[in-house]
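Justification of resources, computational component.

The compute hours requested in this renewal are based largely on the per-chain cost of generating structure records like the one below. Each record pairs the submitted sequence with a full structure-token output. That output is archived, and it is also reused by downstream analysis tasks.
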Amino acid sequence: MDSEEIDIVLCTHLHADYVGWNTRLVDGRWVPTFPNARYLFSRIENEIGDPRRNPAADRDALRGNAYRDSVLPVIEAGQAVLIDGDHAIDDALTIVAAPGHTPGHVALWLANVAGRALFCGDAIHHALQVHAPHWNSGFCALPNVARATRRRILEQCVEHRAPLFPGHFGAPHAARVVAAGRGFAPQFVAAERD
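The structure output for this chain reads:
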């Protein structure tokens, strides 16, 4: 697939590891990697990450420079869509608020005739957090909110039998979440090969 064929890019939050591929350097200027895509950003994330609106963003190693070279060029190109609350991309894909890791963090639900799946970004950062959802990573900006969001996400995955697709788990990456006592356990899903 060519970069011109991509029509939607979702950034669950605006940390450097989630936005770094939004742009590419062409003739000394950062330009959107996907010239025909709408880039979906949380409005809250944008307001916090924009050093022009929030000078503290320049002191945040995960935000300031990444915003300037990987988010601002997309906005200036007119390709950004700032979203508030739940946002349906189409009949199958819905963005939902998942704050805690960052104030405006979002997740993505996929729902179709085959079932549901959740792409959680960094709301669940490590597989151990499935067993211990009260554990935060060192990057959770709102610790109590992150714990509540994580628990809610895990409960929803169990309720809907929805596989969880996190951003940072090691191989095999995706897992079904099952109830285990008063908590949860991951059942990792092996990749299928043709």
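Residues 38 and 137 are 30 Å apart (CA to CA). The longest helix spans residues 143-160.
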